[in-house]
Amino acid sequence: MELQQMRYVVAVAQERSFTRAAERCHVVQSALSHQVKALERELGVTLFARSSRRVEPTAAGEAFVAAARASLDAADRAIADAAAASGQIQGTLNVGAIPTVTAIDLPSALAAFRSLHPAVRIGVRTAGSDEFLTAIAQGSLDVALLGLPEERAQRGIAMRTLARERHVAVVGSAHPLAGRAGCRLSDLADSTFVDFPPGTPGRAQSDVAFERAGLRREVAFEAMNLDLILGLVRSGLAVALLPPGLIPETGDLCTIPLADGPTRVQCLAWSDFNATPAARAFVEGL
């Protein structure tokens, strides 16, 4: 059994296609198929159920792929650690970033990192803070840029605060409070709100603030997309509580400082258990 055979099997399992797996691995399909069949003969099991239109892992294939991924990750880590010991950073750097991060210029940070460590393969994805915290804890993500309530912490994950920012009230230009120099949560309690879905860190910040103030509010609209949230505010359907750095300077939106508004902490997160050389280099470079 060879590592390359494992890579082929993992690629087929992910792509559900020998053709696409071969393209991804930069090898002709006949060679990839031959290696997979040779591995099946060696193991004495069928890894994939095949037809002219479908390819799916068998139960044995699912079990093999899970272990193969772990073996490949370990092999990649061994190469990266050996290279780091000789002064060269290799391997991969998987970065997550919430769509509303403003504390750093991520493209510029990645460009600077790439110029110092050209041998590192970089991957970037966007999602929510909770998803990224889980991915870091599970070892499938190296570092992430998050937005969390001030009290939030998670065991096994190191965090560096990048910025703290108090939310502002965001209202349409025709709203009765538009133009106010400041307000409190009690001034907004009777308003209809748009917010992030329940359970997300973006929503928790505002929920905790209203709870501490002893106030109830109506959240009639829920969305993860910032443009949709701001569109609902522009239309006069709702008000929102958001970090000030996310609000565009347009005449149809007004921001009002909140004396008792929630605070969002933007932070850099990474595993505090055996981080990869690439992850350590990225964190140290910021």
UniProtKB/TrEMBL annotation:
This is LysR family transcriptional regulator. One of its GO terms (molecular function) is DNA binding. It comes from the Bacteria. Gene3D superfamilies: 3.40.190.290, Winged helix-like DNA-binding domain superfamily/Winged helix DNA-binding domain. GO terms for cellular component: protein-DNA complex. Keywords: DNA-binding, Transcription, Transcription regulation. Residues 1-58 form the HTH lysR-type domain. Belongs to the LysR transcriptional regulatory family.
